[in-house]
Structure formats: structure tokens, C-alpha cells
Write a structure and sequence with these properties.
The chain is an alpha/beta fold. It has helices at about 5-15, 50-55, 105-110, 140-145, 150-165, 195-210, 225-240, 250-255, 260-275, 290-295, 310-320, 335-345, 350-360; strands at about 20-30, 35-45, 115-120, 125-130, 135, 185-190, 210-215, 245, 280-285, 300-305, 325, 330. This is AAA+ ATPase domain-containing protein.
């Protein structure tokens, strides 16, 4: 890695003190059975060394190998293992400040900064070390929210509740009768598959510029350490001020009977939910199977109705507006959208998206002449 790159990396490391949302496209490191394993990720992350150590008190970082020579070649993607002690010596105890003020540091001082930072990866739901050189500012897409197709009044209510909970608008603090209870916002998104429930959670992430913390309900069904796992999930989401999204909740939160492991799981979840202070989005296709006690804790329910013809045209229009053709961006008139909706019938969002992907993968560039019409699109039929 060139000297200039090492200095810039050191400066960036000093700027990452505290908590920061970033995007990592490149190298991340995890410890597996005491060994450092390098993986490649493309994900939003949260840099937060202090919280990392709070959640992983037994985690130890490798020492700098002072006997090794730093590689100063031109390959900026060189493995960061060169910085680590191959003899496996570890740093123990609490990390303390060395008292150095970053504003007074010189270039040579930045060379001694750690090439990685501690944090959480939202795509893998794992604590990791991230290569500082592979971190960028998180980019948010306003178009994601603009393409959301649900009634504006319902969306406005959802947004107002979420902004209040995240502290983006002034509000009066509210507690339950028991201090610390009832401070969260629990939202239930329900309806048949493909109508945009998961997309709504993703759109809220982009619009509110807060990370989306996804958890599959199926992962919690047979968890032997369920109480600890649920506690950690809520603690992470609350600390990062993230939007917690638990998908397909009917698998985990369906009605209780008399006794059994499942009943205990729902009881544990309810108890932890009472003290959760963040935003929770539950999504399901089968709300009628939900446990009544869970439903009673929901602050806002958003039902996704079966799409009308106009709604389906909007779905196709949104997907086709992003499509590229051999002649440039797709241009689809309202008449062709109307014709397309009549041809394909009652497809939901997932089916429409899959259909376009399938067609895109199976079309070739059109050849000249009347025999070369492989590139004719469905909307032109």
C-alpha cells in the first residue's frame, strides 16, 4: 500500500471516532476460533468501537507485528494481515486513550493508526472489523420512497409516528405506568405476498436515513438462547436508532396454546418488547394467526389491499421506468401500460419484477432485417 494511502487511511481512522453510518464495499474481518478470516462485503455498516466492546467483552484484537516490514507497494488492495502479528499475540484488558489530539498529529503519526475499525454489518448481522480504506459515506436513495405505492394518508401517519420516535420532530416524552415501558413504536404491515410490505421498510430506511436491521423470524423459532438473542436484537436496534424489521412473523408469533416451547418463546418476546425503545416493523401474510397479546402491543397497523388495475399499472410503470433497452431507457405510454396490465392479469410486485428480470435475461440485441426481432418488448406486442 503506498505511503500516501496509509496516511489518508490514518486520517480517516481518526475521523471515525464515535458512532458513524458508513458503506463498506470491500474487506471485512471476523474471528473464527481465534483466527482472522477476511471476507468481502457490500453493505451499510455502523462504526461504533465502544458499543462493539460492550457487546463483545471478550474480543481481542491482534497486536501490530513490529518485526514485520510494512508493504509499501502500489497494490492498494494488499491484505491487511501484514499489519497483524502472525505469532497470535493479543491485546487484553480495556482500551485506553493515548492522549494524542488528532488535530496535532503529523503524517508520520497517521502511519501508526489501525487500518481497521470495529462495528456492525447490517447485511450479515455480524460484528466485524472493517478496512478503513474501503469505507465511504452512506448514500441514501430518495427514489425508493417515491416509488412506494400505498395511500398517502396512511404513509403520512406512519412517517409522523416514525419521525417522532426517532427524535426528528419535537415531542413530549411518554412512559407507561411502569417507568421504561411503552417507549417504542410497533408497526404491523400485513397483506398477501408481493404488495410491498418489505419494500415499505426499505423505503423508510432510505427516507429517514436510518439503518434497517433485518431479522428473519424463522431464526428465532428453535433458538436455545432465545431470551439473550432477543435482548441483543432489541439492544442493538435501540442503540443504533435503527429500524428493526422482523419478517414473516406468523412463523414465530402465532397464537399460543397450553404449554409448549412455542408458548414460552412468545412470552419471552412479549416481555422484551415491553421495554424496547425503538421502531419495530413486523410483516406477515397471515395476520389472523398472530397471538392476540402481540396484536394488542401494536401501535399502528397498515393493511395492504389487493391491487386495483390502476395500482398494477403503477407497479409496471415503476419497474419499466428503470429498465434499459438496446435503444436507451424504456419509454412506455399509459396506453401500453393499460394494455400490459390487461395481458398479464393479477400479478403482484414480486411476480412483475421476476417477469421483467426473466425477459431481460432471455432477450438478445435486435438484428437488422425483418427476421431479427428478438428484441421486441412485451409492451410493443
Amino acid at each position: 500500500m503506498p505511503m500516501r494511502s496509509l496516511i489518508d487511511c490514518g486520517r480517516n481512522f481518526c475521523d471515525l471516532k464515535g458512532q458513524h453510518i458508513r458503506h463498506c464495499r470491500g474487506r471485512a474481518f471476523v474471528q473464527v476460533r481465534g483466527e482472522i478470516v477476511q471476507i468481502s462485503i457490500d453493505s451499510r455498516i455502523m462504526v461504533d468501537p465502544a458499543f462493539f466492546r460492550q457487546m463483545n467483552p471478550n474480543y481481542t484484537r491482534p497486536r501490530i507485528n513490529q518485526r514485520s516490514e510494512l508493504y509499501m507497494g502500489s497494490d492498494s488492495s494488499a491484505s491487511l494481515h501484514v499489519f497483524f502479528d502472525n505469532q497470535g499475540q493479543r491485546m487484553g484488558g480495556q482500551v485506553k486513550s493515548n492522549g494524542v489530539n488528532p488535530s496535532g498529529m503529523k503524517d508520520v503519526d497517521f502511519l501508526t493508526c489501525c487500518p481497521t475499525v470495529l462495528g456492525y454489518c447490517f447485511s450479515e448481522n455480524m460484528w466485524m472489523e472493517f478496512a478503513v480504506a474501503d469505507l465511504d459515506q452512506a448514500q441514501w436513495s430518495s427514489a425508493t420512497f417515491e416509488n412506494l405505492r400505498i395511500p398517502s394518508q396512511q404513509m403520512d401517519t406512519f412517517l409522523a409516528l416514525a419521525k417522532t420516535r426517532l427524535g426528528l420532530v419535537p415531542s413530549i416524552p411518554f412512559d407507561d405506568f411502569v417507568t421504561g415501558k411503552g417507549r417504542g413504536l410497533n408497526v404491523l404491515l400485513y397483506g398477501r405476498p408481493g404488495l410491498g410490505k418489505t419494500y415499505t421498510a426499505e423505503a423508510m430506511e432510505e427516507h429517514l436515513q436510518r439503518p434497517l436491521y433485518r431479522v428473519a423470524a424463522g431464526e428465532l423459532i428453535h433458538d436455545k438462547c432465545l431470551e439473550e438473542h432477543v435482548s441483543n436484537i432489541f439492544k442493538i436496534a435501540s442503540h443504533f436508532n435503527a429500524i428493526l424489521h422482523i419478517d414473516e412473523d406468523d412463523v414465530f408469533l402465532h397464537g399460543r396454546s397450553i404449554g409448549g416451547v412455542h408458548d414460552h418463546s412468545v412470552t419471552v418476546f412479549l416481555r422484551k418488547l415491553e421495554y424496547y425503545e425503538g421502531i419495530l416493523c413486523l410483516t406477515t401474510n397471515r395476520v389472523d394467526e398472530f397471538d392476540d397479546a402481540i396484536l394488542s402491543r401494536i401501535h399502528y397497523k397498515l393493511k395492504y389491499e389487493d391491487p386495483t388495475r390502476e395500482f398494477r399499472q403503477q407497479i409496471w410503470g415503476s419497474f419499466l421506468s428503470k429498465a434499459d433497452t438496446h435503444k436507451g431507457s424504456a419509454q412506455v405510454s399509459s396506453d401500453k401500460l393499460h394494455k400490459l396490465e390487461g395481458m398479464v392479469g393479477d400479478l403482484d410486485g414480486w411476480q412483475a419484477h421476476s417477469g421483467l428480470k426473466h425477459y431481460e435475461c432471455n432477450t438478445e440485441p435486435p438484428r437488422s432485417g425483418p427476421e431479427g426481432r428478438q428484441g421486441v418488448t412485451l409492451v410493443n406486442q
